Amino acid sequence: MSPAGIRLIVGADEAGVDYKDQILADLRTDPRVAEVIDIGVNRDDAPEQFTKPYPYVGIAAGELIRDGQADRAILFCGTGIGVAIAANKVDGIRAATAHDSFSVERSVLSNDCQVLTMGQRVVGLELARRLAREWIGYTFDPSSASAEKVKVLTDFEGC
Ligand SMILES: O=C[C@H](O)[C@H](O)COP(=O)(O)O
């Protein structure tokens, strides 16, 4: 994370765009956030862009984090599952779908996830907004007992 604050990505497919736009607005006024990159989709996109399948969104977010352009991402699709699967295809990326407070906490403190995903068709908007706020407040402790478990993943991937 940048010392000046967290650098975040938000993204969604067509099924998650409304939640993505609300979270984007929330993050832009959050003092813990240094920068937010909106990777789309957006309602004013051309139709072929707006209906882009969810794997493109998840992979793009994962690649930006892998390449150091951002610290973490919050992604949406209908269920949150598709964008999580896609982001997890990028080496070094740990993405989790979570719709409850405990899982949101553990996704960082246990798993050092850089990507949180949620489903617009699954969770209410106000809960999604709360969970996003909570999630960016957690930081993984590399000296915790969870670190050696995460290391099994990074060793497997060689990154
Ligand atoms: O995981 C997939 C997402 O929920 C996506 O937004 C919807 O995909 P579908 O149209 O294949 O159900």
In words, what does this structure look like?
- The chain has 159 residues and is of the alpha/beta class.
- The chain has a single domain (6-157), classed as 3-Layer(aba) Sandwich (Ribose 5-phosphate Isomerase B, Chain: A), CATH 3.40.1400.
- It is 43% helix and 17% strand.
- The protein contains seven helices and five strands; from the N terminus they run βαβααβαβαβαα.
- It has helices at 17-28, 47-50, 54-66, 81-88, 101-109, 125-136, 147-157; strands at residues 6-12, 33-38, 72-77, 95-97, 115-119.
- The protein has a five-stranded parallel β-sheet with strand order 2-1-3-5-4, sandwiched between helices.
- Helix 5 links the parallel strand 4 and strand 5.
- Helix 1 (17-28) packs across helix 6 (125-136), helix 3 (54-66) packs across helix 4 and helix 5 (101-109) packs parallel to helix 6 (125-136).
- The mean pLDDT is 97.
- Bound molecules: erythose-4-phosphate.
- Erythose-4-phosphate (E4P) binds at residues 13, 15, 54, 77-79, 81-82.
Domain tally: 1
β-strand percent reads: 15-25%
Cα radius of gyration in angstroms: 15 Å
Q: What is the name of the CATH class?
A: Alpha Beta
Q: How many helices in DSSP terms?
A: 7
CATH-derived architecture: 3-Layer(aba) Sandwich
Predict the CATH topology: Ribose 5-phosphate Isomerase B, Chain: A
Bound molecules: erythose-4-phosphate
| Structural class label | alpha/beta
Helix content: 40-55%
The arrangement of helices and strands along the chain is EHEHHEHEHEHH
Spatial order of the strands in the main sheet? 2-1-3-5-4
Provide the low-confidence segments as ranges: none
Number of strands: 5
Shape, please?
A: globular
Distance between the termini: 18 Å
Average pLDDT = 97
Q: Find the CATH superfamily.
A: Sugar-phosphate isomerase, RpiB/LacA/LacB
Instruction: Outline the biggest β-sheet.
Output: 5 strands, parallel
